[in-house]
Amino acid sequence: xxxxxxxxxxxxxxxxxxxxxxxxxxxxxxxxxxxxxxxxxxxxxxxxxxxxxxxxxxxxxxxxxxxxxxxxxxxxxxxxxxxxxxxxxxxxxxxxxxxxxxxxxxxxxxxxxxxxxxxxxxxxxxxxxxxxxxxxxxxxxxxxxxxxxxxxxxxxxxxxxxxxxxxxxxxxxxxxxxxxxxxxxxxxxxxxxxxxxxxxxxxxxxxxxxxxxxxxxxxxxxxxxxxxxxxxxxxxxxxxxxxxxxxxxxxxxxxxxxxxxxxxxxxxxxxxxxxxxxxxxxxxxxxxxxxxxxxxxxxxxxxxxxxxxxxxxxxxxxxxxxxxxxxxxxxxxxxxxxxxxxxxxxxxxxxxxxxxxxxxxxxxxxxxxxxxxxxxxxxxxxxxxxxxxxxxxxxxxxxxxxxxxxxxxxxxxxxxxxxxxxxxxxxxxxxxxxxxxxxxxxxxxxxxxxxxxxxxxxxxxxxxxxxxxxxxxxxxxxxxxxxxxxxxxxxxxxxxxxxxxxxxxxxxxxxxxxxxxxxxxxxxxxxxxxxxxxxxxxxxxxxxxxxxxxxxxxxxxxxxxxxxxxxxxxxxxxxxxxxxx
Length: 581
Description:
This protein has 581 residues and is of the alpha/beta class. It has helices spanning 12-15, 35-48, 94-110, 116-126, 130-135, 146-157, 173-190, 194-206, 218-228, 237-246, 251-268, 272-282, 290-301, 304-323, 334-344, 352-361, 366-385, 390-405, 421-430, 434-437, 439-454, 480-484, 488-496, 506-512, 517-525, 535-541, 548-566, 570-580, and strands at 7-11, 20-23, 62-70, 86-92, 142-143, 208-215, 466-469, 501-504. The longest helix has 20 residues, at 304-323.
């Protein structure tokens, strides 16, 4: 007989409160989100809360998605007022739930007296209640597997843990990802004002919600998971938008309007919806609601037909060029392609609207377009090295968009592209421990430096590479590394130095880890089926010893290349800072 699975829509606060407690089954993969996925979740919530852009109103609620829980005891979903703690296994939704708990913990530890009540509420999201501690031996609302749980507990869940740094090193990739996500979220959330942090905490607790599906046996749980993740085609917002736009077009011209719309949708594919977010930023609206935003632009443009002809069609073409720059069949200037390839390695959220507008406005002046893209590329990377939050980056690029619209003269490093001495000082400081601060931007910087060393623009997928510490983060007690660098402080400084980092494949990274230098060199050279050694790694492969002197010399070399690329003297700033010290 067919039975309906228990299902409920619950706010984050309801889900992370008594009687819910969560464990991750042993067969589940470890935490695997990077700063990109975690950052996107935060950006989506910030946008829904009205905390990104120019003050767009908050949405009435934000749907985070469906999660599947398993109750091995075979019960139903808890009823209102139920206080007896129960432990549920997470079948689908682990990455989102853990990331939300990290967001909550960071907000809690950043919290001030101005919204202390919010901190207490966030504490309830993170820690287990006293009854569960006594009866279920549960310390926290979510508990992972042994080693990962200890790391999460020490450096996230425990009050004040988000301010602690690992003292024993990081032992596995899951811990590396947890730490990188924590650091990224700290950077993004610390950029908010105290008041906005409080508003975000409130929105997260009571306005964000899940649909929770409960199953009672493992086989059915995985059947439900397969069904919910089936790639079926449902009605998309694009379909609703198309109907909304075309209803106002006279029948005798509707065919032409439909052709323009479908041509644009076909050209961009799944990125068509993202295009509208960029479109709103170009026109200074920062709308979080796509349909409402499009209606507004259509009114301002004078109707559907001029909107399609003068805005959608030309800007879709520019966005297509921007996204397809790596395609050698695309007929674009080599320098333009170069900067678009580099920009394409970064998440699009902040720089893409300015890039689209530059390509569209100066399509008949490729030299000026390239000059603009070079400056957009420079600013985009430097803002990431500054570890600025998305709000700050978007404000900087809003000034760039206004300069392009006004057809202002573009002078390298001036006007909206200016980077102050204080910002250069901060970049220099961040470069000392960039891997700890943001693993993704650290990898992208290494790949960029690789191209400068190779004197060639490589079209590669950053996902195919990872960052490897040549001097390991946790060298063995009797290893040659400790003989070469016996002083613990110097060893730690050298470990995190940019001069100690290389880009290799994840498989090479896993094999290298704590090996001695001779073995690492063999691994970096690669096996028959490995990717060719990158230029950024070649000098390490050719070295005979890897001590403090070699690491410092390579660091200076790489910082000098940064100066050549972007015109900022991080070498001089580093020397000045050391001299002052």
